[in-house]
Write the structure tokens for this entry.
Amino acid sequence: MKEYTVFKQISLPKLNNLQPGLESTCLKLMEEAGELAQAIGKFRGLNGEKVELEDHEVVDMISKELLDVAQVAVSMMFVLEEEYHINIKEKVEEHVQKLIRKGYIKLENSEIK
């Protein structure tokens, strides 16, 4: 298996005291994605309302909603690993290979370890 240099990385912990299932996590993911879309639409003025926030405040709110989406997506990966015995590391490698095939990631020789 090839390893790639990581330029940006986020690592989110498993949350304590939660027992999420696949369905409940999926619903939560959709809820958080909706909140992200709402923040983008409302605070960027796409819904016709006047925006009274500074641009940096808008981007800050959007980034917080995006991180909520990321946290729930990571939680869903934990559910897939623990409940369904899916090898997430293997799935990530397959996903990276797909991105390479589609041309979204271009590797230089120096990027391959």
In short: The chain has three helices and no strands. Residues 1 and 93 are 8 Å apart (CA to CA). Residues 55-84 form the longest helix (30 residues).
